[in-house]
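Appendix B, example 12.
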Amino acid sequence: MSRTNTTALKNDPKTINGWALFDWANSAYALVITVAIFPGYFLAVTDDHFTLLGISMTDSALYAFAVSAAYLLIALASPLLSGIADYGGRKKWFLKLFTSIGSLACISMWFFTGMNTLPLGITSFILATIGFAGGLVFYNAYLPIISTEDQYDQVSAKGFSYGYIGSVILLVVNLGMITFHEELGFSGQSIAVRLAFVMVGLWWLGFAQIPFRRLPADAFVKSEENLVRKGYLELKKVWRSLQKLAMAKRFLVSFFFYNAGVQTVLFLASTFAINELKFGATDLIILILILQLVAICGAYLFAKVSDWRGNKFSIIVMLFIWIAICVTAYLVITKLQFYLLAGAVGMVMGGIQSLSRSTYSKLIPENTPDTTSYFSFYDVLDKVSTMMGTFGFGIVQLTGGMRSAVLALTVLFLVGLVALWRVRIVRGEGAISQQPA
């Protein structure tokens, strides 16, 4: 069977802006649901302590485990799906599929009202998170297709910045609706909160239609072969290729550990603020706005630092900041201190995700046709590390409390830092040395 590759004009502003608008669309879920509104709503409508499947559980630990379950499922599925997508030329098809699953599941969270509908709430949240995380596999895979290597850092930063701006706009609307629910005629705050879930789903699905139109069309390949088997063969091919790329392997080890810490902080910061510092709705509004607005500056700042001193230097600086954040969070006792800490998190959360993605893009062999399979491997590490971080956080929290769980995250950043220190990045033509240092 012959293989057909989708071609695209690289560095085309319209295509790049369309690609970045997918971040605008789906980041509303990442911010409004997983960070700002759903954690507090979940803790408010569920019992503080209960027994689930014979296990004594807290609602905050269950939330952490729900995140872990979602990322475990997508980690198991993404190598197969993205390998099939790359082999069959179906990047956009799968991007649309996961967007539909995620946005519709988000809308269905309207029906989650308390302990009596807890299974529905958990299932909807897990499916929505799977839709969000699964779509990123195919979204990221477009980066080497639509831009040249010298533009990876800037294009990647543009995507994150669009995401921050779009999600903040919808967050302000949602939180205004929740805060002034009586003036707006809602019979209760919970109705305004659940309506926000619906609005996020519609925003996500609606704005995603723009990148669906602008991104390169799929080049469908008709095959009588078993594409399930082909999916695993694609993954094995990437694994064998990585055996020859010493620096790429070291970077991925580093990414696995520090990303576990980053994602755990981002997913569980709100539950920490609510449980440990008694944040209310207004406090969370200020907290999230600080995070997102500073993150816009942070993504571009560290892209510039990368231009000046290279990707490795930028990521190392950010890892030191992440370690300081975890230690400080263990000690923080006032809301003002936590707001200042949120500013530090915002400064590095966008930068480290953006530069990690662009650094990996530079590690992929030039002109490879299998970008989705390579990014599948990257995204599997992303999902497994997120699962490991959030699950570990939940376990430590059950035994030692949330502050101890936050402090334990420093270990993940330290391991990532040590692994990254041994990666040699050669500046010049954007090439990264693959020979052992």
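The chain has a mean pLDDT of 81. The beta strands are 49-52, 55-58.
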